[in-house]
Amino acid sequence: MNGNSPTLQFDRVAREFPGGVRAVDGVTLALAPGSLTAVIGPSGCGKTTLLRLAAGLDSPTAGRVEAGGASGSRSVCFQDPRLLPWRRVVDNVALPLELSGVPRAQRHASALDVLNAAGLAHASRMLPAQLSGGMRMRVALARALVTKPQVLLLDEPCSAVDEFTRMQLDTEILRTWRACGATTMLVTHSVSEAVWLADRVVVMARGRVHADHVVRVDRAARERGGVAFIGEVEHCMRLLAAASGAASGEEAA
C-alpha cells in the first residue's frame, strides 16, 4: 500500500438495532495500510457487526466507515466457505469477476493464478464436495483475493476446523497477507491465533474498544511454544478477561 493514510478507518461509529441494542458504540479505529489487525472479545461484543460495517454489508447508525478507495476494493471471507456445490473450484474462485462482467478467459486465468499461488492448482477442476474442510476454506480465501482487494476482512475463517487444520490455515493466511499486501482485519475467538497472525490485537466489550495492544514479539521470532509468544498470549488473555468482566459488570449494574 502506498501512502500513510489508513486504508480502513472507523470514525465514532455506532450501530443500534431495534430495541435500543447498541452492537457497536462509538468506535474510532484506524488500520494502517498493509497491516493485519485481529479483533477479539466475548460473544456479543460487536466484533462481527464491526466487520460487517467495514464490508459494507450493514450501515452505521452514526459515524463514518472508510474502507479502501472504491466499492470493489473490499473482500470478505466468512466462517462458512459458501462455495457453490455445482461449480468447479476454478469457477467458484472466478465468481466475483464473473459478477463484475469480466470475460470468461480473463477471469479463469486470474482464478488459476490465485489457485496456483495458494498451492491449489491441482484442485481447480474439483467440486467442493471432493475437498476437505480445510481445502474448502482455502478456496474461499482464494476467491476473496481474486479481485486484488485493498482491504481483506476475515470473519472467523478457521472456526469450523480442528486445531491442526487451524494452524495450517493460519500459515496460509499469513502467506496470503504477505503476498497480497491488503490491509487485513481478522475477527477471531482464538487469542493464540490473534497473537500469531496480527501486528495488533483489538479487544472489544459491549460494542466498544476495551484495549488496543500492539504485539511486542517480532513476527519472525514468533514460535507457538516460545516463552515470548506465550507471554503475549497470556497478556491478551488478561485483557480479554478484563473485557469480559467489564461487560458482565455493566450488565449487572
Q: Which word captures the global form?
A: globular
**Alpha plus pi helix count:** 7
Structural class: alpha/beta
Low-confidence stretches: none
Could you state the CATH homologous superfamily of the largest domain?
P-loop containing nucleotide triphosphate hydrolases
CATH first level of the largest domain: which class?
Alpha Beta
User: What's the main sheet like?
Assistant: 6 strands, mixed
Order of helices and strands: EEEHEEHHHEHEHEEH
Query: How many separate domains?
Result: 2
Number of strands: 9
What does this structure look like?
This protein has seven helices and nine strands, in the order E-E-E-H-E-E-H-H-H-E-H-E-H-E-E-H. The chain is α/β, with parallel strands linked by helices and 253 residues long. It has two domains: 1-69 and 155-253, 3-Layer(aba) Sandwich (Rossmann fold); 80-149. Helix 5 (163-180) links the parallel strand 6 and strand 7. The longest helix has 26 residues, at 227-252. The chain is globular and about 50 Å long. The mean pLDDT is 89.
